[in-house]
């Protein structure tokens, strides 16, 4: 069976790595010219995503990943603060948590290596259709079409493949705009280093402002102690933060700014909304080149609304189907779990146990449940931010705080 994957992001590469390992013919097309051309933030993979990944990639790839990842179990309990830095409460003990945090660039690079020369970069797919025999094919504006037995759209939030299948967009803006950046722990004042500590945290403030501060230390907190295998982009304890605001005409203007100008404008917005004390130091001392703005898009939380097309030789996975805001830290994990589920179904087709349409149908049914579950969790965070869009904001965020990735 020949599979063409549109999109070599997290889900597409995870699927292709698994297909290649099981001797399927696979080709991945991605418009990016470089694998490292991807967000500079970190990805949390929970225990289920980690297990799915271990089914897709070879054990030596998994070892390199773990040697480059920060173990959640080595982190202190998460903390919740208000916008003035007052501690509101702590999250659960992470001692038994098998999840990991890994640089997005490291994860994508490792997956791309596992896919090898089956990944074709700089190739933008312009359309999906069928050849004269009814076989699915992908089209390009600058090259002949490529035909396959199965086409999988792993082309993210603005998926062309899912739009073709659904007859329209599969998600819409969630009403929140995010800004991410990286701040090495050593760049903070000793006092702020102590306050933040070796843990992730979330601060909630008035008028829909929130600041997630994620702690990543792939060296000191390595999930696997094998420095010779390490390939993390982050080489010391670092906070990777995400500042969030309700989207408006005024916040839209921020999206046109870059680097130091973006960081300064973001700090202004938060100060205008009453943030004070040490809480903004992590933003103020971020490497300006790391600061970026991104919009949150979300698909429906209802399983029945996801992948609303009849099962056939063109399907999709990951954000293309269930675009998930980062507020639960589960979008990439869900894409990897989709990839493992599709591989399992396709292996049954190859073994003669079932037909391709039946296998795709079963895969899509599982993906609807999975997508609905992660979207429901992620939208709790979005709703909390939008609910505090009042002058008073939150007084007791600890009681209602969303999951911290
Ligand atoms: C700041 C931030 C933090 C996040 N943190 C987490 C986290 O902690 N944990 C977590 O699980 N998730 C997290 N996420 C979400 C996660 O990044 C996504 O859910 C995940 O990347 C989805 O994977 P995907 O393969 O579906 O899409 P993507 O990884 O977005 O890949 C889509 C790919 O398709 C390519 N493409 C698109 N159109 C075309 C085309 N026409 N032709 C060819 N190629 C095309 C793109 O270049 C891209 O490489 C975060 C997201 C953000 C923005």
From TrEMBL:
Against SUPFAM superfamilies, the record matches this protein to: FAD/NAD(P)-binding domain
Pfam families in the record, alphabetically? FAD_binding_3, NAD_binding_8
Q: Which GO terms describe its molecular function?
A: monooxygenase activity
What does the UniProt keyword field contain?
FAD, Flavoprotein, Monooxygenase, Oxidoreductase
Superkingdom per UniProt: Bacteria
Q: Which residues form the FAD-binding domain?
A: 294-352
Which stretches of sequence are listed as region Disordered? Answer: 172-202
Which PANTHER family does its entry note? FAD-BINDING DOMAIN-CONTAINING PROTEIN (PTHR47178:SF5), MONOOXYGENASE, FAD-BINDING (PTHR47178)
Under what name is this protein listed? Answer: FAD-dependent monooxygenase
